[in-house]
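Session log. Operator J.P. requested a structure for one protein chain; no other inputs attached. Running the standard single-chain path with token output.
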Amino acid sequence: MLASIIAAAASPAMGQDPAPETIVRNIVYRMVDDTALNLDIYVHRDAAKAPTPVLVHFHGGGWARGQRPENWTGFRPYLAAGMSLVTVQYRLAGQARAPAAVTDARCALQWVAANAARFGFDPERIIVTGTSAGGHLALMAGLLPATNMVDSDACRDVPKAAAILDFYGPSDLAAASAGSAARHGTVANWIGEGPDAAALERAMSPVTWLAADSPPIFIVHGDADPVVPVAQSIDLKHRLDALEVPSELFVVAGGGHGKFDPESNRAVVGRAISFLCGRKLLDAAVCVSKN
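Structure written below.
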């Protein structure tokens, strides 16, 4: 999980206490029939002075399990770097299959932008992130064009993400089943096996939506990942390079599916923050302190 990666990372930047100024839990950002979808907000202490960048996080779990983190402490270095935080609940496969989770992720981004002034978020610095299936959702939320067949009518005007931090998310769902007569089990559980499954699999693959104006993407993957092969992220990086989209791939030697050693964890977070600094998405004082 991303929280475990970050928890092992370096201490807060410039010695700051990163504790959020305001915590608001269980905000309903979307109603689907009788189901309320919630998010939690952790507002940076500087948001009252000037709008802060905001990290929007989607949890992993194969689109079928998991939940948003219980608190902010796993994201300590990001808050120390001046970011507010939003963690998002989305519909799991047992509630609704694809593209439901992507629709929810897009609605969450729309909600964050619509409520930016209320919480002191900078709508021009919305950064999406996630682990595993959450990394996939971050990619889909950030890469889908403004006009698509996924967005709900109630959640139009989804903002363009300023950057994506993808932690070992699958980027090509069709490739996940390559070499097998059957669709990958985790993918099939979310996509389904009907006559339109192959088309939906392609539509739910982030690589389908890459374009020259895609947001900058920072990618992390362990080269010994037994769940999502590192080849998925290598291919994503090659495609981004071909389009000249700013990106970086950090491959963790010996890393499993998020099970990285403490030194690698610290390196991952440091590189992620440096990547955001390079895109001028963090305040100059934070970026100067890292150099």
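Operator note: Confidence is low (pLDDT under 50) at residues 1-15.
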